[in-house]
Design a protein that fits this description.
- The protein is built from four helices and no strands.
- It is mainly α.
Length: 90
């Protein structure tokens, strides 16, 4: 049980509280949404913010990988099976 307390203390020490201003009608709807999914408004907000923060990092990583592939020639393009005229036929 001692290990769990130490882990919990470490996790809680790494978190900060956040205060949001939201209209009551929206909050009521989100509470219902959360309750239907067996979670809390706090957990929904936390999950959304974590996803939002990670999207930028994933985009940067993908761009970096694409640039690397372009420079190393890992991206190949097949032979052209069409002509310019075929593309512009109407």
């Amino acid at each position: 049980m001692h290990g769990i307390r130490a882990w919990y203390s470490l996790v809680m020490a790494q978190r900060k509280n956040l205060t949001l201003a939201i209209d009551l009608e929206t909050l009521d709807e989100v509470r219902i949404y959360a309750a239907r999914r067996g979670t809390t408004v706090n957990a929904l907000v936390r999950s959304y913010l974590v996803e939002l923060a990670s999207q930028d990092a994933r985009r940067k990583e993908a761009r970096s990988e694409i640039r690397q592939m372009m420079h190393t020639g890992l991206v190949t393009v097949g032979e052209r099976s069409w002509t310019r005229d075929e593309l512009h036929q109407r």
